[in-house]
Amino acid sequence: MVLIVTLNPSVDLLYFEKNFSLAAHNRFQHSTIMAAGKGINCSRALSYLGIQATSLALVGGKTGVFFKELLKTETFHPVFLSIDDETRHSITIMHNDGVHTEIVEAGPKVSSPELRMEIFDTIIKLATKEKPRVISLNGSIHSDDPYFYNDLIALLRQKLPTTTKIFADFSKESLHLIVNDSFYKPDFIKPNIDEFSELIGQVVHDKQQVLDYLITNPIPVPYTLVSCGEQGAIAQFNGKLYDVTAPSIELVNPTGSGDSTVAGAIYAFEHGMSDEMVIRYAIASGTANAMEQGVGIAKSEVVSQLLDQVIIKPIQ
């Protein structure tokens, strides 16, 4: 069983237009509307792969009501924690031959100690009841408390079996603190190049620079997968480094590919696969999503076709 947590979900509007101009009137023919947020996208991708996760999301306001309606067509199992503020919107525009523009609201703020405790209690109760093998904490949280995720992961480590795998798919200060300033670490992280730069406190521009850094400065997390866009990824799994080349595809929409990458890794973990197969499923799932207009779409038949196209080169 898998438990996914999304503390800042959104209603996503996706537009696909050949031409888009700033400071001008742009008329779009239609939009694709989806319930989203990193954990929701991950849950959807897992559904396509054959795992129906329990997916917790904070929702509020009229947008939250609409968000719940959108999820009625999904096959995973949503659980909602109601808040007072409005669930956020996010707009993605794919235009001008593959240019990707996003407009993302910050979302409702988690500030009160009471709400913080309610979130923690809800997650612990769900985890105690469902006994998940994997818990994935996905996406940002709009909070003034940079140690929110540190405290949550510490609580999960104290309350749950040591065999429970914790995935941390968030970035910026939250990721930096949980990796560098916490006794309780996650088992899996998946930063992209920009997020990796923030994590290590220095700018890296490409896959080779990521690899060069990790050779001498290993990240203290058992499974670290640094996604490098079209260049593929660098994986540091259980002290070993791998140079990963992704399949070559025609890009449709990259939104949600990182979330689908996490879903692919979770799928492989759930099935007790080897480190190499975890990498293959992660990269193939993220690639499959990039071939779709929607977000969090990792069709199992497409993923299966892409698995052998993922090239993995052990470094050490």
Features:
single chain, 316 residues, alpha/beta, UDP-N-acetylmuramoyl-L-alanine:D-glutamate ligase, 10-stranded mixed beta sheet, 4-stranded mixed beta sheet, 14 strands
Nutshell version of this structure?
Helix content is 37%, strand content 24%. By secondary structure, the chain is of the alpha/beta class. The chain has a single domain (2-17, 32-314), classed as Ribokinase (UDP-N-acetylmuramoyl-L-alanine:D-glutamate ligase, 3-Layer(aba) Sandwich), CATH 3.40.1190.
Structural class: alpha/beta
What percent strand? 15-25%
Strand order of the largest sheet: 5-4-1-8-9-10-11-12-13-14
Q: Give the helices and strands as they follow along the chain.
A: EEEHEHEEEHEHEHEHHEEEHHHE
What is the count of distinct domains? 1
Give the mean pLDDT. Answer: 93
CATH architecture: 3-Layer(aba) Sandwich
CATH topology: UDP-N-acetylmuramoyl-L-alanine:D-glutamate ligase
The overall strand count is: 14
Which regions have little confidence, pLDDT < 50, spanning 5+ residues? none
Helix content: 25-40%
- By CATH reckoning, the class would read Alpha Beta
The CATH superfamily turns out to be Ribokinase
Family: Belongs to the carbohydrate kinase PfkB family. LacC subfamily. Belongs to the carbohydrate kinase pfkB family.
Catalytic activity: D-tagatofuranose 6-phosphate + ATP = D-tagatofuranose 1,6-bisphosphate + ADP + H(+)
GO molecular function, one term: tagatose-6-phosphate kinase activity
Domain Carbohydrate kinase PfkB: 12-297
